[in-house]
Amino acid sequence: MSEAARRGLAIEVLASTGSTNADLRQRIGQLDAPLLLAAEAQTAGRGRAGRSWLAEPGDSLCFSLAWPFHIPLARLAGLPLAVGVAVASTLRALGRPVQLKWPNDLLLDGAKLGGILVESLPARAGQSAAPLWAVIGIGLNVHANSARDARLGHPAAILGGALDRNVLLAALADALSDTLGQFAAEGLAPFVDRWQRWHAHAGQPVVILEQGRVLHEGTATGIDAAGCLLLDTGGQLVSVAAGDVSLRIPVASESPDAAAD
Ligand code: ATP
């Protein structure tokens, strides 16, 4: 029996919706157990800070997972990175050498393949499952789509090949069920080594932007135990928390296929 089935993970699939994260946020008050909600198409998919995530019908795998936690809110900070490891590990086992871009992106051949959006919500008063819920949204490009690429202004990375999206969803549900259970018990620690191994920008010069302004420049060295990015700024090690900062490759060292926005 798969891990997701063993844990009794309920899965619902919609033909189309605005955003699976928004749908689950609305339903948190009625949930007493984890729920995975997938959609064939999302018309208002979101990334961080309200940025949009584009998914045309049938070209991608978009889903969100609502999961109850019995840990303080501050300990959820590393969750997007643990989820990144779970997704990368599943895709690498399927022969796709996915890498991780801090804090929440999945890259393939230097281009953006997918994104992760984690939102947290308090439970309603008296809700039995847990005091805190995480809604974990994942969008992955599976097939080529010229309409999406035209809207993005460049070709997105895709998983490609003969991947069945239902099989992929089942594998990801299993991996995430394992990961979230382990994260609740042990935090980010069991995931740090694999995150570092699959870090797309290890040892590379990067800039950290906050609302378009350069906050830090340096060499990305990896992450710390809390999931902060460690940046060597010329002898000094700076730890950067995700918040709403963004990592970019400095223009001078950007290669044509490293346009990972
Ligand atoms: P950060 O590096 O801070 O995460 P980001 O620009 O990558 O910033 P996200 O919130 O992770 O922002 O993702 C949203 C962005 O991803 C959009 O602004 C767009 O540039 C890009 N994007 C949207 N849809 C797709 C897609 N299907 N494939 C690849 N990239 C996409």
What does this structure look like?
This protein has 261 residues and is of the alpha+beta class. The protein has two domains: 3-197, BirA Bifunctional Protein, domain 2 (2-Layer Sandwich); 205-258, SH3 type barrels (Roll). The chain contains six helices and twelve strands. The chain has helices at residues 3-6, 20-27, 79-93, 146-152, 165-186, 189-197, and strands at residues 10-17, 35-42, 60-69, 99-101, 105-108, 111-122, 132-141, 205-210, 213-223, 229-232, 237-240, 245-248. The strands form two sheets. It has a seven-stranded mixed beta sheet, with helices on both faces. A five-stranded antiparallel beta sheet has the order 11-10-9-8-12. Strand 8 and strand 9 form a beta hairpin. It is globular and about 50 Å long. The model is unreliable at 253-261 (pLDDT under 50). It binds adenosine-5'-triphosphate. Adenosine-5'-triphosphate binds next to strand 6, helix 4 and strand 12.
